[in-house]
């Protein structure tokens, strides 16, 4: 629904400009600017590049997706991905949220170095990450060997899947939590402390509830990233197979035809996850700029 | 009842430092921390609260050192800038927060919060979310949130900022009443001299992380020690006389060939004059009278109005008496005396007691 812009200054600047009734955005259809048209065409190009491979995969394999769903190997691999990602997100949350809180609230020597390290898993190739984890948690490593005494083995176990997923997905949760904590006004925490709340009570009653939405968003991002991980998981724990490992396995051993339905199913699940994620994290938020 | 004492308090936050702050606040005293933005007022308030560590110095409450006591054990009530209500809690939950932290049972919590809401006339806001409150209402809720805790000292950070004139008047009256009724000292941070003079008994004026003048509010306002304090307190006329002559009870000073008399007794600043030194003098614009006819005032000078600005109920004049002076008169006086720019000669009067000699 469109209505005339009531702002005289805008009306003078853009004779054709109109805004949506929520006051946020000019109507695209009314724009005659070459810059806006060029931007739109370039944007359309990247959208096609992103969507076309996915669409052709899903459309091409739509007839056999049902077979993939009913294949117990596929469902158990998908379950392993979801379960492993869930455990990895819990592990990252338990350690990453305190780290984000400390980084956000305190100054200490080497803080910027620690802060930079958080992004490292995003930068290094994920199979390299898998090998690196193996040097710490593998059966011949000091720490991995020690844990083996208690029956905790990382190679080809759920522990390995969780460790590999946690390594690559941790930055997403930690960064989101940092931003969420930074958005909590210091004055509000000060007010809580002046009212008798110690650091722990202030965190539990004020900081965490106010940052919870951002942390939850980070958790979802981290979980989604963990589900999609292949490289590090394949190095550390090829078995039990996660969805990404299983897809690779089928593609290598049985060829493209056998892999396509599984691929299509995974894409469909990802689309559902993204839609749910958007719904939860953005709610009714507009994508438009605010005035 | 509480007596607060700061001794050489030095603290650093983000590169800004408070330097050797010293003052005392007596029992039930209303104390204003006055200064421009960036003077360090809020940082000092936060340091008293215990949010910033002291680099040096000590803070005493009733002769007990509290320098290293965590904020939640100091028993001070703190109303941050804007109120800082907890956005995820409604008004009643905000007010009861401190009582919950002290594990007070629900019945007592409700009784105490009811009392506080009645006291501040905010019962109707009980279930509202902070985001649906006006700035004035937020301040009242923040005050109620502190008052239920029966603090021994209240610290208010710019409580009147972003509040409209009507709500400001109501909040001012409320603070006066609370201070009268409660056995609590108040520290009120503000950059507004009128706000300070309307509420406080004592004041410390801050600049660049230091207290540049402190004392009883009437004394500080009538005897600014430095040009900075004088300008900040509204002494817009800062002049440099050519000559000072001590004549016993009075000081004669010469400005651009004109003699002005300054009485010694009106302020301590004027008593500390050093004849050989170079001092500036300060005059408030409201102490510069403009009339059509000469008066018996010893400092009565002939002059011209060279400019004026309408300030609503007041008019600000710039007059030339051989040197420039700012004057503020009421709109009525402006009309009655037919004060006109560049037309005719007027008489400018400054009482000897209105001249303040700046010592620093």
Provide a short characterization of the protein structure:
The complex is a heterodimer of chains A (about 290) and B (about 350). With about 290 residues, chain A is an all-alpha fold. In chain A, about 75% of the residues lie in helices and about 0% in strands.
SSE layout and pairing:
The complex is a heterodimer of chains A (291) and B (360).
Chain A: E1 2-4, H1 8-13, E2 18-20, H2 34-60, H3 65-70, H4 72-105, H5 111-117, H6 120-123, H7 126-137, H8 142-148, H9 158-182, H10 186-194, H11 199-227, H12 231-236, H13 243-254, H14 256-282
Antiparallel strand pairs in A: 1-2
Helix pairs in contact in A: 2-14, 4-9, 4-11, 4-13, 7-8, 7-9, 9-11, 10-11, 11-14, 13-14
Chain B: E1 4-13, E2 16-25, E3 30-34, H1 41-49, E4 56-61, E5 64-65, E6 76-79, H2 91-101, H3 106-119, H4 135-147, E7 153-157, H5 165-181, E8 185-190, H6 193-199, E9 202-207, E10 210-216, H7 217-222, H8 227-232, E11 237-239, E12 243-246, E13 250-255, E14 258-263, H9 268-271, E15 280-283, E16 288-291, E17 300-311, E18 314-320, E19 324-330, H10 331-336, E20 346-350, E21 356-358
Parallel strand pairs in B: 3-8, 3-9, 6-7, 7-8
Antiparallel strand pairs in B: 1-2, 1-4, 4-5, 9-10, 11-15, 12-13, 13-14, 15-21, 16-20, 17-18, 17-20, 18-19
Structure description:
- The complex is a heterodimer of chains A (291) and B (360).
- Chain A is mainly α and 291 residues long.
- Chain A has two domains: 24-60; 64-290, MetI-like fold, CATH 1.10.3720.
- Helices cover 73% and strands 2% of the residues of chain A.
- Chain A has 14 helices and two strands.
- Chain A has helices at residues 8-13, 34-60, 65-70, 72-105, 111-117, 120-123, 126-137, 142-148, 158-182, 186-194, 199-227, 231-236, 243-254, 256-282; strands at residues 2-4, 18-20.
- A two-stranded antiparallel ribbon of chain A has the order 1-2.
- Residues 1-24 of chain A have low confidence and may be disordered.
- Chain B is of the alpha+beta class and 360 residues long.
- Chain B has helices at residues 41-49, 91-101, 106-119, 135-147, 165-181, 193-199, 217-222, 227-232, 268-271, 331-336; strands at residues 4-13, 16-25, 30-34, 56-61, 64-65, 76-79, 153-157, 185-190, 202-207, 210-216, 237-239, 243-246, 250-255, 258-263, 280-283, 288-291, 300-311, 314-320, 324-330, 346-350, 356-358.
- In chain B, helix 2 (91-101) packs parallel to helix 4.
- Helix content of chain B is 26%, strand content 34%.
- Chain B is elongated and about 75 Å long.
- Chain B is built from ten helices and 21 strands.
- In chain B, strand 1 and strand 2 (16-25) form a beta hairpin.
- The interface between A and B is medium-sized, with 17 and 27 residues.
């Amino acid at each position: 629904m469109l209505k005339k812009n009531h702002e005289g200054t805008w009306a003078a600047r853009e004779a054709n400009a109109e805004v949506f009734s929520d006051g946020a955005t000019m109507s695209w259809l009314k724009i005659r600017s070459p810059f806006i048209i060029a931007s739109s065409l370039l944007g359309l190009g990247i959208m096609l590049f992103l969507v076309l491979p996915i669409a052709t995969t899903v459309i091409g394999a739509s007839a056999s997706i049902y077979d993939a769903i009913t294949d117990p190997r596929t469902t158990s691999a998908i379950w392993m991905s979801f379960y492993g990602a869930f455990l990895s997100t819990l592990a990252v949350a338990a350690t990453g949220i305190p780290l984000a809180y400390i980084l956000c609230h305190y100054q200490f020597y080497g803080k910027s170095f620690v802060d930079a390290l958080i992004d490292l898993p995003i930068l290094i190739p994920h199979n390299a990450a898998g090998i690196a984890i193996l040097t710490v948690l593998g059966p011949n490593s000091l720490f991995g060997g020690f844990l083996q005494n208690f029956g905790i083995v990382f190679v080809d176990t759920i522990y390995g899947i969780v460790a590999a997923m946690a390594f690559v997905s941790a930055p997403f949760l930690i960064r989101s939590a940092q931003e969420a904590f930074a958005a909590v006004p210091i004055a509000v925490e000060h007010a809580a402390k002046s009212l008798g709340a110690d650091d722990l009570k202030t965190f539990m009653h004020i900081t965490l509830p106010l940052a919870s939405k951002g942390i939850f968003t980070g958790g979802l991002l981290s979980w989604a990233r963990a589900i999609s991980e292949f490289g590090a998981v394949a190095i550390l724990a090829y078995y039990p197979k996660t969805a990404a490992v299983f897809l690779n396995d089928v593609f290598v051993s049985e060829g493209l035809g056998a892999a396509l339905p599984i691929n299509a199913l995974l894409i469909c699940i990802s689309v559902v996850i993204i839609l749910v994620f958007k719904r939860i994290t953005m709610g009714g938020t507009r994508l438009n700029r605010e005035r | 009842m509480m007596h607060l004492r700061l001794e050489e308090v030095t603290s650093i936050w983000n590169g800004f430092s408070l330097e050797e702050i010293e003052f005392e606040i007596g029992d039930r005293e209303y104390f204003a921390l006055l200064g421009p933005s960036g003077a360090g007022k809020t940082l000092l308030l936060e340091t008293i609260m215990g949010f910033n560590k002291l680099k040096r110095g000590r803070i005493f409450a009733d002769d007990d050192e509290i320098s290293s006591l965590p904020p939640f054990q100091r028993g001070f009530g703190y109303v941050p800038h804007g109120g800082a209500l907890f956005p995820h809690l409604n008004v009643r939950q905000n007010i009861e927060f401190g009582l919950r932290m002290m594990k007070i049972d629900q019945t007592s919590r409700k009784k105490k919060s009811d009392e506080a809401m009645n006291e501040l006339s905010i019962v109707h806001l009980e279930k509202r979310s902070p985001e649906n409150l006006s700035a004035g209402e937020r301040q009242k809720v923040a005050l109620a949130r502190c008052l239920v805790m029966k603090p021994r000292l209240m610290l208010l950070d710019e409580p009147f900022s972003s509040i409209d004139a009507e709500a400001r008047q109501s909040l001012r009256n409320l603070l006066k009443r609370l201070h009268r009724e409660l056995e609590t000292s108040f520290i009120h941070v503000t950059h507004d001299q009128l706000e300070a003079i309307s509420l406080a008994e004592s004041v410390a004026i801050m600049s660049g992380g230091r207290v540049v003048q402190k004392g009883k509010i009437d004394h500080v306002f009538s005897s600014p020690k430095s040009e900075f304090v004088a300008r900040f307190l509204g002494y817009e006329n800062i002049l440099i006389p050519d000559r000072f002559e001590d004549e016993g009870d009075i000081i004669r000073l010469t400005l651009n060939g004109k003699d002005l008399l300054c009485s010694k007794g009106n302020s301590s600043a004027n008593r500390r004059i050093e004849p050989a030194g170079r001092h500036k003098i300060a005059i408030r614009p409201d102490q510069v009278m403009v009339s059509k006819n000469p008066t018996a005032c010893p400092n009565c000078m002939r002059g011209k109005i060279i400019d004026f600005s309408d300030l609503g109920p007041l008019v600000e004049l710039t007059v030339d008496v051989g040197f420039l002076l700012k004057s503020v008169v009421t709109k009525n006086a402006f009309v009655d005396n037919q004060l006109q720019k560049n037309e005719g000669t007027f008489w400018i009067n400054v009482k000897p007691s209105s001249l303040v000699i700046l010592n620093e």
